Structures are given as C-alpha cells and as structure tokens.
Amino acid sequence: MKVEDIKTIAIIGAGDMGHGIAEVCAMAGVKVNLYDIKQEFVDKGLAKIKASFEKQVTKQKMSGEDMNKAIGNIKGFTSLKEAVADIDYMIEAAPEILDLKIKIFKEIDENAPKHAILASNTSNMSITEMGNATSRPEKVLGIHFFNPPVMMALVEVIRGQKTSEETMNVSYEFISKLKNFRGPMQPVRVERDSPGFIFNRINAPVSLYLAEIYEKGLINPEAVDAKIRSIGSPMGPYETMDFAGLDIFCHGTEYFAKTLSPEFRPSNWLKKKIDAGELGKKSSKGIFDWPEGNRPAIDMGKADPNFDPMDIVCLQVNEGTKLLEEGVTGSAAEIDKAMVNGGGSPFGPFALAKGMGWDKVAERCEAISQKLGIKWFLPTETLKKGNIQV
User: Fold this and answer.
1) CATH number of the domain bearing residue 228
2) What is the CA radius of gyration of the chain?
3) Which helix (H) or strand (E) holds 9?
4) In the structure, what pLDDT confidence band is assigned to residue 232 with cuts at 50, 70 and 90?
5) What is the mean pLDDT of residues 65-93?
6) Does position 353 have pLDDT exceeding 90, yes or no?
7) DSSP bridge pairs for 116
8) Are 149 and 278 found together in one domain?
9) Can you tell me the distance from the alpha carbon of 239 to that of 226, in angstroms, rounded to the nearest whole number?
C-alpha cells in the first residue's frame, strides 16, 4: 500500500480522542467513518467536531467553505461491520481495556478489506497482542495521538512484533501529511512494543520521583509548582496530576509497577487521596483545591529555591538511554522530538542536559537513587560511558 491509497479511514470511538482524530483526518480531505456503540455517542462526537470547526471560523483561522468540506467528509456509524466495510485504514480509540481492544480488532479484521491497515490509539497497551488477534498482524500497529489531537502535534507510530516495514512507512508518511490547528503533526517512530512507548516511558521515572519526594515530605507541592512555573512552564507537575486525575495517575503507576518495576507502585498519599474521593479537578479537590473546576491558586512567591528542575531532566535522560539500549528508538534526537512535541518544552531532555556533561548527569541520577532508595534511578551503562549522540 502507498499513502495515496488511503482514501477512507474508520475511527472506532467518538469520545475525546476519537472525535479529535476524526477532525484532523477530515481536515486532510480523508473520508472518515466515525463509529461508536450508540447513536447518542456518535451525535455527541459530531457535535463537538462541528463546534470546534465553528470556533476556528469565528477566529478567522478557517473558512466556512473549508469547514463545510471537512464536516462533509465525516459519516457516523453504529454498525461496526458497516463502518469498516470500505476502509483503507482504521484507528481504534476505545477505552484502555486490552480485552475490549482485542475483541474490536478481531471483529474489524473479519469485516474490513484485506488491504486495510489497523491501528490502535493506545497510550500503553500491547500492539503485539492486538495484532495477534487478527489474520494480518503485519498490518497492525500503534498510532498514538496526544490529547487534544487538534492541538497536540506528537503522534507515536509504534511497531508491534510482527508489524511490517511497509506498514510503518506508510503510516509515518500518512501522519506526516496531517495538520491540526497549530500546524503539521509530528510523528516519531517507536521500533519496539514496550511499556509507555517513548513519551510516557520517559516521564515514568519523573512521576515516581515526584510521588516519592511528596511521600517523604521533602517538598511542598505548591512550592515545586511555583518553581516550575517560574521558569516558563504553564502548569506545574502536581497541578498536572490533579488536572489529569489522580485516579488516572494511579492507573499509570500500577501499569508500570507490573511491567517495569515494583518500585512504581502507588504511594500511600496517592491511595489515601483516591480513597477519600479527592481525584483532582474532576472532584474539585486533589493535591490542590479546584473551586468550581477552576485552576488552583498557586502562590508564585512560594517557589522552592532548593528544588532543581534539572533533577527531572537527568532522570528523563537516564530513562531515554534505557530506550536506546532496548531498541525502542534509534536516537536521542527522536526522543527529544517526542518530548518537545508532546510536552510543549522548547528543548528535549538530551539537548537540555548535554551541556552538563553525561558524567555529571550520571552522578546526579546516582545521588537521587541513593537519597530516595530507588534502584530504578541508577544510571545506565550507556549514560555512565557517555556514548550518546544528540
């Protein structure tokens, strides 16, 4: 298959991610079959797409004619069999439940044309297992958009164990042709089906670090967030946890505890918050108070002078070297590309830390590991040897 052969795409799931992906594909002139299990879910997704386009027209960033063309490219479906009958490509955006995804892939495999490529928008589930549920594992891969797709540029293109090079190349080229409201999508290649892929895996030790220093009472979350915001970040890390939902954060730590190391298991403070129903923004209280869903008031005058953001960068670099060692990605530059386009930083961790010297980065990781008693933070051989090209 060539990228020019992708004329019709099915998006499975009309929720926040699904309708956002459908919107981006429709803007590119691709015919989109948007499926969900109930008509009300499809209608809700279509309504949000229309409202999003209308907002762009109001801002004069999109013409009314272009909006109508894009909307005309989308058809709603509640029959999965009908939604995939004439497709060239599929992106599944169902809830993150592996058994559900496997069931969906089996049914789509039975009903979609044999040439069609089948992708999952999962953020961490096994692409290989989804592929093995089909008769075309060489045509199954991960296509991980970031939320919201109409604003976030990063897309991880993820190889399962049996994904063919043709499938990877066509998919990478397809994503490269898409644009959202901020500009072109920025795909990165993930060459091995590994927990967290690139972006979430690089941030896994950061989440563990932040949870642990809070658990041990070494910091005040407001003081850390004030420090991080003082250097240009729009939102601090603890507010980000609240914003996403502490229950979601907990699910992520549980997943990495199973797949990477037991050291990632949820902290006591996190379990207590969840047991108390304090989930963050969605419950109006989490690490911070969210009055009526509004952002917490962070006192910038409380910025912690002893909290060094380079600790976070060093842990990201160390995790990045693990991905290089495991063959998840082929270069530090690709990791930096993912982190810049997925997190909004102007520079990736390798670019930021290079000036320190890799030996100093390794020493910093060693010190953090010893201080907190977490072996996962120990520097890799790659980092200690400094054999890194940026």
Assistant:
1) 1.10.1040.10
2) 21
3) strand 8-12
4) confident
5) 98
6) yes
7) none
8) no
9) 10
> How many whole angstroms separate alpha carbon 323 and alpha carbon 192?
9
Q: Is the Cβ–Cβ distance between 112 and 106 less than 8 Å?
A: no
Give the pLDDT of residue 99.
Answer: 94
Assess whether 179 and 287 both reside in one domain.
no
Q: Is 241 exposed, middle or buried (0-12, 13-18, 19+ CB in 10 A)?
A: buried
Query: Residue 356: pLDDT above 90?
Result: yes
Task: Indicate whether 344 pLDDT > 90.
Answer: no
Question: CA nearest 89: which of 207, 209, 182, 170?
Answer: 170
**Helix, strand, or coil (residue 124):** coil
Model confidence over 131-164: pLDDT tens digits? 999 999 999 999 999 989 999 999 999 999 999 9
Q: Are strands 183-184 and 154-159 parallel, antiparallel or unpaired?
A: unpaired
> Over 90: is that where the pLDDT of 286 sits?
yes
Is 141 in contact with 168 (CB distance < 8 Å)? Answer: yes
Whether residue 186 is found in the same domain as residue 225 = no
For residue 344, being part of any structural domain is answered with: no
- Token code pair at residue 389: 């090209």
Q: Please check whether residue 162 lies inside any domain of the structure.
A: yes
Rounded to the nearest angstrom, the gap between the alpha carbon of residue 282 and the centroid of all alpha carbons in its chain is: 20
The residue assigned the tokens 């250097």 is 231
237 contact partners, CB below 8 Å, separation of at least 6: 206, 210, 224, 225, 228, 312
Round to the nearest angstrom and report the end-to-end CA distance of the chain: 33
One domain for residues 172 and 69: yes
- Does residue 367 lie in a domain region? no
Residues whose CB is less than 8 angstroms from the CB of residue 295 and which lie 6 or more positions away in sequence, other chains included = 239
What is the count of structural domains for the chain?
2
Under 8 Å between Cβ of 202 and 316: yes
Same domain? 240 vs 162: no
**Could you list the residue range(s) of the whole structural domain that residue 268 is in?**
220-302
